Amino acid sequence: MRVHLLLATALAQGNGTLQGPSFLDRALQSLVNGIQFGSIIAITAVGLSLIFGTTHLINFAHGELVTIGAVVAFYLNAAVGGPGWHLIPAAVAAIAVGALLGGLVDVGLWRPLRRRGVGLINLFIITIGLSLFLRHLVLVFFGTQPQTYRQYAVQQALTLGPVGITPRDLVIIVLSVLVLFGVAVLLQRTRTGTAIRALSSNPDLAEASGIDVDRIVLVVWVLGGGLAALGGIFSGLSQVITWDMGFRLLLLMFAAIILGGLGSAYGAIVGSFVIGIVAQMSSLWFPVDLQNAWALLVLIVVLLIRPQGILGERERVG
User: Fold this and answer.
1) How many CB atoms within 10 Å of residue 208?
2) Helices 245-260 & 120-142, crossing angle to 10 degrees?
3) In the predicted structure, residue 314 carries a pLDDT above the cut 80
4) Cα 191 to chain center, whole Å?
5) Residues 191, 193, 197: CA angle, nearest 5 degrees
6) Which of 61, 101, 138, 300 would be 131's cystine partner, CB 3.0–4.6 Å?
């Protein structure tokens, strides 16, 4: 994260020595960092959760959609020989590319395989192969050198009491919350959202009710691809753009989905914020390199207490 703790030091009376921030100040800063990190995970994980809910496909290639969104925006914005667009229109175009790619993958690959009756295990293996192919394709064209966007890379942090946050990171949090709210409205207030929820709950009954399953699944893939691209852009803004950034985020996406409850978009959102906050706040006591490990430990503990996840429904046996 490029949201760092603002060391608002003060001179101690009498000896002129510098004093660092208190534990409470550092905890509040870590909480803000965790909310931002969680919002990025949530943007990427909610689409992955919807895909699993409607198709029961564990899509290992979802991380590459995250990377492609960030890389396309970089090419349009800052790459040598690129058009040099401002980041905002470049981001819009990258989201459109991510949505289009998600739709093309469904129409060109997953739909024919579903119609052939290919098993879920076989589809799972195919997603791993697709992930490796896309990741190394990005590596060939993008390279191994980390990159940044031309705009908003370096900003002075705003000081809000003991907490510091750059305008860029504040916008990431606000936009993420607005997008997630929009997804919730789509799921709860529209016919398409009702069909998505029906398909997630009972695919056979949804199809028997006259729902066009192929169209709804295509909508979910397009939505998931667009959200993944947006999450990649946000991640590239808050950190750097690398050829494997989506793959490194994928484990946390799966952790958030399992923690929140498999197949629940709202659960994925809640799980993402829990993972993000725990990961950042663990650095108050432990090395930063272990922050993801502690987040996954929380996942294990929660599942031992509540196997269906935070918002998941307990399944009946028999």
Assistant:
1) 9
2) 150
3) no
4) 25
5) 115
6) 61
